[in-house]
Amino acid sequence: MPDRQPTRQPALRGTAQGSASRTPPCPWTGADRPPGHPPSWRKRWVLLLNTTFEPLTAVPLRRAIVLVVCGKAEVVHGDSAGMVLHSASASLQVPSVIRLSNFVRVPYRGRVPLTRAALMLRDNHRCVYCGARAETIDHVVPRSRGGPHSWENCVACCTKCNHRKADRTLSELGWRLPVAPRAPRGRHWRLLAGLSDADPLWLPYLGEPAA
Ligand SMILES: [Zn+2]
């Protein structure tokens, strides 16, 4: 039997919600959650880059490993915990970022949907008003005052500023936004919008935050 356990037990973070991979059982990751693996192991996601290093999407870890093992992608960044998977005859660094061997053309698909995860990523998980760690989303023009739920009117915010601001406008408070919020550009944002979190190792590949 191949040893399917990672060489050391990492502090795995669940990084995504949504549908699980329907790929066939993989000899590297096991048919299902291997004994001893935390549930988040199966929820690990890997950033997939085009040959040009343009981010395309995030894929489940199992799919990423299949792509690498089949020679369709190479590992650009290994997992920050340095985890290694073993099969009977080889070992493979657990990837955080992989790059396709062949270029794929992806059609442009318009405006990125606004999700909490994508908004937090756009604002670097920092409160736009004070720079503290953001825990919530603030509507710059409060919804009670007709403010829309849009990229241009939503910002990452800490609970303290959110409570202080309440249903007042920035001019009423004398507050200012450092940068006008806007929708992030780049089609990968659409694909990342479905994730609840992103590996910090991905950030250099995601481009400059839009706000
Ligand atoms: Zn704040």
Query: Stretches where pLDDT falls below 50 for ≥5 residues?
Result: 1-39
Q: For the residues shown, what is the average pLDDT?
A: 77
Query: What would you report as the Rg, rounded to the nearest angstrom?
Result: 20 Å
Domains (count): 2
Q: Note the beta-strand portion.
A: 15-25%
Describe the fold and architecture.
With 211 residues, the chain is an alpha+beta fold. It has two domains: 96 residues, no CATH class; 70 residues, DNA Binding (I), subunit A. It has five helices and eight strands, in the order E-E-H-E-E-E-E-H-E-E-H-H-H. The strands form three sheets. It has a four-stranded mixed sheet. 31% of the residues are buried. It binds zinc ion. Zinc ion (ZN) binds next to helix 3. The site of zinc ion has 8 residues, from helix 3.
Topology, please?
Layout: E1 45-49, E2 55-60, H1 61-69, E3 73-78, E4 84-86, E5 91-93, E6 95-100, H2 116-122, E7 136-139, E8 154-157, H3 159-165, H4 170-173, H5 188-192
Zinc ion (ZN) binds at residues 127, 129-130, 132, 157-158, 160-161.
